Amino acid sequence: MMLTMKRLHRSLRQFESKVAHQLSSGMKFHELHVEAPEEVTEGETADLTCKTTCSLTDPTFIWYKDGRPLTTKTIKNNQLHLQTVSSEDAGSYSCAVRGSQHLRSTAHSLRVRYPPKRVSVSISPSGEIVEGSSVTLTCSSDGNPPVKNYTWFKGSTPVGEGKTYSIPNIRSEDSGEYTCQSRNDHGERRSTAVNLNVFYPPKRVSVSISPSGEIVEGSSVTLTCSSDGNPPVKIYTWFKEGGTLLVGSGQSYSPLQSGSYYCEAQNQHGAQRSGLVTVDLNGPSVILYVAAGVGLCGVAAFLAVFFWRRRKRQTRNMNEPDYVNTRFRTKPPDDDSCSVDDYENTTKADLKAPPADDDASSAQDYENVTGSGLSAPPPDDDSSSVDDYENIPAMLAVIIQQYRRGSAVLRDASTVELQS
User: Fold this and answer.
1) Which are the contacts of 304, defined by CB distance < 8 A and separation ≥ 6?
2) pLDDT at 130 over 70
3) What are phi and psi of 160, to 5 degrees?
4) How many Å apart are CA 381 and CA 360, to the nearest integer?
5) At 413, is the secondary structure helix, strand, or coil?
């Protein structure tokens, strides 16, 4: 009986001790609490105060944010001072007395209002963007209150609204820099630019000729191919119309034959051909042929006029007697030549007939006539001497020289064409 009473008394004392400890602990827990504003705007100041109803002798307070002790904030007595509130100051705050850290106050939630931050743009799908595919841009940001207004820009030009911006069937013209602007009640902020680089096959392929204008004989012609493509075109091939084999490669090509040519530009996304350009390397040869023909016709016309005028003068002089007052039978010169038969009447008068003249009826040819008392006629108008036509050989020499030069150029041009 005595043993049972001792056990009962021991159990009662243990129970009283536990109850006293729990009552003491519960009282201390509920005596600490935090006084602070529920919401502040970024840039403002805020003070948080740890209060208790107990009388404590020079207590030291410890502050917690989201369960972790604060060591970098300004703590004065029982007050936590936030000098310039930022979005990072938002969270759950509690306090405790040093030595009883396990007895913390109830947590107080502090909200911070701030404009959009960390605005960024993502591209989907990632990787290479090829013309004809679809692309979606998504804008992300952090703000309180949450951002609900988004504006999209290409360069400085607005192109869309909303959190996402889609470009179906994208074209090369859609390449460029894009930004997203986020806005809430406390401000706005624009993202850094993202570059859309659209790859596409060659476009606007064309051929230029150098030199432009008339092609001079002996000069070279250069064809240059231009195109627009991404990535830039590095493969150029040249073809001649009517042929299936390529005649050259590279951005420039110098043809050796007349004809119509085109170039083909190619990159890893496709190929495109230019229109036809015509090169005429035979034009100067035709001009030389025409010039030579005109020169020959001019020579023939000149000679025809010359002999016609000479024949006309000969006919006129045949109708007029060369000799008068001789009292002998005379015979006019035949065919503009003075032979022995023409002077048969003069031989009977012991006169000598002159030799056949060389188409120059000078006074010396009739010296025997004047010796017999006959008067010699003056030299006729139809004397075809070298002096009368001294300019004719020079003109003929110039014309023949020009013709020979034209023929030499034609032979050179023909040789070049045959070699081509």
Assistant:
1) none
2) yes
3) -175, 170
4) 10
5) helix
The pLDDT tens digits of the residues spanning 13-55 come to 554 444 344 434 444 444 789 999 999 999 999 999 998 877 7
Cα 385 to Cα 357: distance, rounded to the nearest angstrom: 11
CA distance 93 to 377: 152
CA–CA dist 346, 322 (Å, integer): 14
Q: What secondary structure letter does DSSP report for 1?
A: -
With contact defined as beta carbons under 8 Å apart, do 49 and 33 qualify? no
Contact (Cβ atoms closer than 8 angstroms) between residue 182 and residue 192: no
Please enumerate in sequence order all residues whose Cβ is within 8 A of that of 53, keeping only pairs 6 or more positions apart, or say none. 31
Structure tokens at 127: 């990787």
Distance CA 288, CA 414 (A): 12
Q: Report pLDDT for 418.
A: 36
Which of 364, 323, 360 has its CA nearest to residue 345?
A: 323
Q: Where are the alpha helices (DSSP H) in 32-116?
A: none
pTM above 0.90, yes or no: no
